[in-house]
Design a protein that fits this description.
Blueprint lengths: L4 H26 L5 H12 L1 H8 L1 H4 L5 H8 L6 H26 L14 H9 L2 H4 L1 H15 L2 H14 L2 H6 L8 H25 L4 H11 L9 H25 L1
């Protein structure tokens, strides 16, 4: 029977991240009461777990290829400035537009929902960039994307990748969210829809130029606003509506061009 390396990787990645959250992040926060910046660094180290797992356990997931060949292929595509800027601007722009709509609905200025906080802005941006955007992409859009693409067509593969990625965050929805009442339901739905759609958008960029720098910047464009955002569940409801519309249009445009 042929070994299912993708299944091994997915199961291992879930076990690893949940173990790190429970046995590292949990005690650091609840027992040692780590300050915000050290706690942020701990979360960043945990977010790199898909990459740790892949590179350390490489022979168990891709025994027929070397790490070097794989990494080179993941960054082999040309880097073009306009698509590069577009990858960041797409997700960041959707979030900004969502905040604009939300501010109109609530009658408050957009900037009233932005809190720079006590951490220096350059440090906040650096910590945001070195979390999921740089820590997760080699595993998700590198290894997992290739494995799913071997099995399915573009859209089904992208949806499967997105669902694996979003449910990898399951434990965080319970321990690292401000929404613990009824708002948890639309918040979780928003995560599932938005992360799945964002995976499709990432793969659209990677399909044209196979270089993970595009998905890194798209991921960063999505994450960066949440470092400063203080909005209620209405923001995420709007986001849940916008992402499928934009993603459906992008897939339609791809199919038309092809």
């Amino acid at each position: 029977m042929k070994t299912n390396y993708l299944k091994k990787y997915i199961i291992s990645s879930y076990i690893l991240v949940w173990s790190l959250i429970i046995f590292v992040a949990g005690p650091a926060s609840l027992i040692f009461h780590a300050p915000p910046v050290p706690m942020w660094i701990i979360r960043n180290l945990i977010s790199w777990s898909p990459t740790y797992l892949l590179l350390i356990g490489w022979k168990y997931f891709r025994p027929d290829e070397t790490r070097t060949v794989f990494v080179k292929r993941c960054f082999s595509g040309k880097v073009k400035l306009l698509p590069l800027f577009g990858s960041f601007a797409l997700t960041c722009g959707i979030s900004v537009f969502t905040l604009f709509v939300y501010s109109l609905m609530t009658g408050r200025p957009m900037l009233s929902y932005i809190n720079i906080g006590t951490t220096a802005l350059p440090l906040s941006l650096f910590l945001s960039f070195t979390s999921g955007p740089t820590g997760e992409e080699l595993g998700w859009r590198g290894f997992m994307r290739e494995e799913f693409h071997k099995r399915y067509g573009f859209l089904k593969s992208s949806v499967c990748q997105g669902l694996v990625w979003c449910f990898w965050h399951t434990l965080l929805w319970a321990v690292d969210s401000d929404f613990t009442d009824w708002r948890a339901v639309p918040y979780i739905i928003s995560n599932i829809v938005v992360i799945t759609c964002m995976t499709v958008l990432m793969n659209l960029f990677l399909e044209r130029q196979n270089n993970l720098i595009y998905s890194v910047l798209l991921h960063f464009g999505f994450n960066v606003i949440y470092v400063f955002l203080e909005a209620d569940i209405g923001f995420f409801v709007i986001l849940t509506v916008l992402y499928p519309l934009i993603t459906a249009f992008a897939v339609w445009w791809r199919n038309k061009k092809n």
